[in-house]
Amino acid sequence: MTENKIEPKADAQGDKLDAILSLLGKTITRIDEMEKNLPAAPLVTAADKKAKKDDDSKHRKDDDEEEEEEAKKDDDDMKMKKHRKDDDEEEAARKDSFHPEATKGHGKVEMPAGEMKFDEEAKKDDDDCMSDDDEEAAKKDDEEAAYADCQAKADSVYSAFGKSASRPLQGESLTAYRKRMVRGLQAHSDEMKNVNINAIKDAAMLEIVEKRVYADALAASRGTGALAKGQLIEIQKKDRAGRIITEFRGDMEAWLGDFKLPSSRVIKFNTENFKR
Predict the structure, then answer these.
(1) Distances 111 to 33, 96, 117 between C-alpha atoms, Å
(2) Structural contact between residues 188 and 158, judged by C-beta atoms closer than 8 angstroms
């Protein structure tokens, strides 16, 4: 009785399984046919891959630039806030430096005696911030400028004689250099030619002698000075080709006088040869 009931149930389940497998097989077959009818995938070349890679790099670069701009904008905002904060603190300090009782008369602000003003404090802070190296460098620049001015002034006179002013010697002070330049032209000044330049200690006196010697030397180079009479001044110049041309300025009698005959005058006329 039990065997007759179980066998029909097993047959029914086997039929269901066969039907499912058959349906699944038909579905797979249909999918395969559909895949065969699908269009082929596009052919990707090396140029396409490179173009895609470049596009990706460009997008990444644009993203990085945007991030940098945002970061820069944030930094600018922070600097602006800090600057405003410093200004506020400075303004508060400036207001605190004044006292309510400092205003007297017609609105004129008077600081208490012995109290330093704000501008003086700022100037003092700037002086304190300057290091010793900066002060030494500024002093050296001033000395070099003074040497250059002295050399240019002397060279303007030496060039009138076809020469050039020499450079300062190693370790030579500015005063010693000025004296050396004046001594080189001292012979052209009738008034200052016997002055002991080395004995001058006063800077104002040295400046007076320097101006006088330079002026007399320029006058002598043009043949209009006191020493120009009876003297010739040799001047050497260079032309565009670099050749040296020598010129002489001064009194022509200094060289032409040696070729002149001594002057003579008539005392009497000899008329003996005319007598008969």
Answers:
(1) 103, 12, 8
(2) no
At residue 126, the pLDDT reads 57
- Percent share of the chain, pLDDT over 90: 11
In this predicted model, which residue has the larger pLDDT, 62 or 195? 195
Q: Is 65 left (phi over 0), alpha (psi -120 to 50) or beta?
A: alpha
* Rounded Cα distance, 158 and 183, in Å: 12
d(CA 81, CA 89): 12
List, in sequence order, every residue forming a beta bridge with 108; answer none if it has no partner: 104
What the block records as the tokens of 118 is 């704000």
List strand residue ranges (DSSP E) for 121-262, in order. Answer: 232-238, 244-250
For every residue of 146-184, which 3-state class applies, written as one string?
HHHHHHHHHHHHHHHHCCCCCCCCCCCCHHHHHHHHHHC
Residue 190: DSSP 8-state: T
